[in-house]
Structure to design on (233 residues):
């Protein structure tokens, strides 16, 4: 069994360079690779193209990279909750490609499966389809969307082993599984790293073949984007 465990986040992000394309798992602030993002901020790489459902908030998640002007382009589905993102986009400092959420997921999954492209009905007849190939299937029009091409995918799981097998928990099963294996190098950070053989094979969501590096993260904040509670009686 190949041991994919690395010593820590610094070894995990080795090879990340300026102008690369990187995927980041997570939905809002749920299931984001907090350790990897913080390490990339310290690394100081510039000109990144980031593929992620959203761009975090002003002081957390990908928002930290935005504040340091390390992101050149965001490929996202939802871009609210981040004032700095809005400022950079409206000023022309940040290139933004908005993608329907299902299409974003499928373009990740296509890359993971080795498919060059997929047809989807989402976006046909809108600006999303401009300049793209369209085709009719059974009387319905579809848009051809190409699989993503990324250098690194950074994902976060609840538990994993040294072979790279991963188990996700709760809402972290959002874009994280689809991004595993969808880039040249997939880096997984986990809350708990266990020896090979301790994970129940029936509970594994992503097999280790889709992961190249794995490490145990630390000091997870697990922030809630918008905390809403009911009033006490």
């Amino acid at each position: 069994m190949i041991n994919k465990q690395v010593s820590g986040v610094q070894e995990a992000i080795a090879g990340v360079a300026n102008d690369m394309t990187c995927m980041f798992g997570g939905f809002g602030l749920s299931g984001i690779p907090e350790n990897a993002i913080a390490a990339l901020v310290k690394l100081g790489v510039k000109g990144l193209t980031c593929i992620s459902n959203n761009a975090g908030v002003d002081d957390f998640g990908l928002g930290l990279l935005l504040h340091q002007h390390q992101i050149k382009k965001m490929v996202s589905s939802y871009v609210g909750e981040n004032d700095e993102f809005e400022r950079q986009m409206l000023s022309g400092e940040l290139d933004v490609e908005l993608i329907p959420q299902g299409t974003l997921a499928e373009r990740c999954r296509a890359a993971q499966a080795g498919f060059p492209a997929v047809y989807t009905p989402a976006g046909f007849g809108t600006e999303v389809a401009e300049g793209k190939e369209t085709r009719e299937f059974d009387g319905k029009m579809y848009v051809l969307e190409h699989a993503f091409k990324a250098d690194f995918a950074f994902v976060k799981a609840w538990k994993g082993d040294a072979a790279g097998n991963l188990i996700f928990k709760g809402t972290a099963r959002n874009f994280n599984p689809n991004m595993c294996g969808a880039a040249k190098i997939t880096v997984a950070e986990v809350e708990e790293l266990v020896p090979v053989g301790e994970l129940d094979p029936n509970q594994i969501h992503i097999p280790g073949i889709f992961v190249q590096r794995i490490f145990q993260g630390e000091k997870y904040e697990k922030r809630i984007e918008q905390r809403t509670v009911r009033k006490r009686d």
About this structure: The domain at 9-116+147-216 is CATH 3.40.1080.10 (Glutaconate Coenzyme A-transferase). The chain has one domain: 9-116+147-216. The mean pLDDT is 94. The CA atoms of residues 181 and 210 lie 4 Å apart.
